[in-house]
Amino acid sequence: QRRCGSEVFASGVLPLSDATSSARGQPAVEFTLSVVSHGHDAEVLALLGQLAGMPAPQPRRVIVTDNRRETALRAALRGRVYPFELVLVENQAQAGFGANHNRAFAKDQELGASVLFAVVNPDLRLLGNPFPAMAFALGDLPNSGLSYPRQLDGQGRVQDAERRLPTPGRLWRRYLCPRQDEVPAGTAPDWVNAACLLLRHEAYARIQGFDERYHMYCEDVDLCLRMQLAGWRMVRADALVEHAGRRASRRNLRHMAWHVASLLRLWRSDAYRAFSRASHARESAPWRQAARR
Fold it and tell me: Looking at residue 2, what is its pLDDT?
């Protein structure tokens, strides 16, 4: 087993541990997992422990981005051994959600890209191993580019992770009825939150990942819209994870400002306008056909 001690590359990336030979010998779904810490040291360590302890297959590589270098994450990770290659990226300056995952994707390509790329939140709690089912979902349908599990909150209730296009009217209805289910049964969502996603490397590269102009909020909406506009499908896997969902924009003025700015950017974007037109055309098609009869 190779360790690099205190060697730090110019990019600020430190390989902390390499995958064990026994893990390499197991049949595996080949994927790299990216997680970003904004001071979530305890959550990241807990997630890494879950990934290491979950039933095989584990990820081939985990890239942890420390977005706040004042944390003690490096010291906490030093000397720990995991059944996957672990890479720590320490940002010199804080970056947004999408930018951090895009840089992790680029680092994965530099080190030898996996077939699949997972984006997860640090506060995710795994209920078993969701990734084989998510990978199977990607392979089960043609042109499937993104898969996701069903999300539960801390009380075991199904989260509203699947959403319709966030129009001002729908957002107002969500504000009045926070637990309202936007997507009727049997209907495909327009987007899903990015707490736990598994993406084809090809699909992520084709759309150039997240739009980094979104510092925080709505980058997952934009990603899903652009992926579908590019001809890729989103598919829900037969898997469960737990994600509490902090919804900081309802309590923190800075986060609320980011959220509003991102919504305004989204509503002005080409992706939003194109998807809105395509959705309207799909929804009005049955009425036009009935009128012709």
Answer: 31
**Nearest 5°: CA angle at 35, between 223 and 225?**
5
Q: What is the dihedral of CA 128, 159, 31, 206, to 10 degrees?
A: 170
pLDDT tens readout for residues 18-63: 554 334 433 458 999 999 999 899 999 999 999 999 998 899 999 9
Q: Over the stretch 190-226, which tens digit does the pLDDT of each residue have?
A: 999 999 999 999 999 999 999 999 988 999 999 999 9
Question: Which whole number is the average pLDDT over 58-70?
Answer: 91
Q: How far apart (Å, rounded) are the C-alpha atoms in residues 15 and 269? A: 38
Distance (Å, whole) CA 258 – CA 256: 5
What is the tens place of the pLDDT at every residue in 144-155? 999 999 999 988
Helix H, strand E, coil C: the string for the chain is CCCCCCCCCCCCEEEEECCCHHHHCCCCCCEEEEEEECCCHHHHHHHHHHHHHCCCCCCCEEEEEECCCCCCHHHHHCCCCCCCEEEEEECCCCCCHHHHHHHHHHHHHHHHCCCEEEEECCCCEECCCCHHHHHHHHHHCCCEEEEEEEEECCCCCECCCEECCCCHHHHHHHHHCCCCCCCCCCCCCCEECCCEEEEEHHHHHHCCCCCCCCCCCCHHHHHHHHHHHCCCEEEEEEEEEECCCCCHHHCCHHHHHHHHHHHHHHHHCHHHHHHHHHHHHHHHHHHHHHHHC
Nearest-angstrom CA–CA distance, 8 and 16: 10
pLDDT band at 68 (very low <50, low <70, confident <90, very high): confident
